[in-house]
Amino acid sequence: MASFSNLTIGIAVASFTVFQLLFHVLSSWVSTRITPGFNNLSQKRKIEWNSRGDPSIVKLNIAITTGYLISDLLLIIYYWKAIGDKFFVIHHLAALYAYYFVLSKGLLAYFGNFRLLAEFSTPFVNQRWFFEVLGYPKSSKANIINGVLMTVVFFVVRIAVMPIYYSHVISSFGTEAFQRLGFAAQSAWIISSVVLDVMNVMWMVKIAKGCYKVICLVGQEEAKTHRNGKSD
């Protein structure tokens, strides 16, 4: 029988409450003061804007992350027409499935926190979306810098770490500690990891293609400017 400590439940509930307040109150209030263009967005865009409030700064442990994931999952379902995405639903459910065992039984905390390294790429992913809805040209300096950083950081924290992560996973197979986990926890660990990383690879390919297109576009514009300069 799973048992959650009062502290764990309290942190998860507090995290859930904070992220709901961020979505419904603070995000709009701050955005209107920092970015005037926020007021010109459609209601659909505002909903997605508020849902992208960066959670990485406050993800200090699994309990806080769980509160965020539950909050975001409910928002995605409730505002499905505006921000619905089946891959995000799969991502959140897979993570929550594994984090259940971390919180309820104290299992696999090291690997759970290791997975949180992936969130270092989230600010850049969200910033790209913010630039897009605010009408920044893809060839703008800010967009290019963020796009390159997003591609590099996404690769480092989600793709390059895979060999390290799975070498630790494989080395645990057959050990006494692995056997003590039980089938349910073993399944949650392996299945959630594979599902999340399949999506990470899919997203990496998409991001890399987008970055390549932008770099090529910039190169073509520079070449055109150079030719025009010579002709003058």
Write the layout of secondary structure elements.
Elements: H1 6-34, H2 43-51, H3 62-78, H4 80-83, H5 86-105, H6 109-115, H7 122-133, H8 141-159, H9 162-172, H10 176-231
Helix pairs in contact: 1-2, 1-3, 3-5, 5-10, 7-8, 8-10
Give the overall silhouette. flat
Which class of secondary structure composition applies to the elements?
Answer: mainly alpha
Q: In terms of per-residue confidence, which ranges show pLDDT below 50 for 5 or more consecutive residues?
A: 54-59
Could you tell me the number of beta strands? Answer: 0
Q: Major sheet: size, sense and barrel closure?
A: none
How many distinct helices? 10
Question: Radius of gyration from the CA trace?
Answer: 21 Å
Q: Helix coverage percent of residues?
A: over 70%
Mean pLDDT: 81
Query: What distance lies between the first and last C-alpha atoms, to the nearest angstrom?
Result: 79 Å
Structure description:
This protein has 232 residues and is an all-alpha fold. It contains ten helices and no strands. Helix 1 packs across helix 2, helix 1 crosses helix 3 and helix 7 runs antiparallel to helix 8. It is flat. About 3% of the residues have low confidence.
List the defining traits of the structure above.
10 helices; flat; 79% helix; mainly alpha; 232 residues
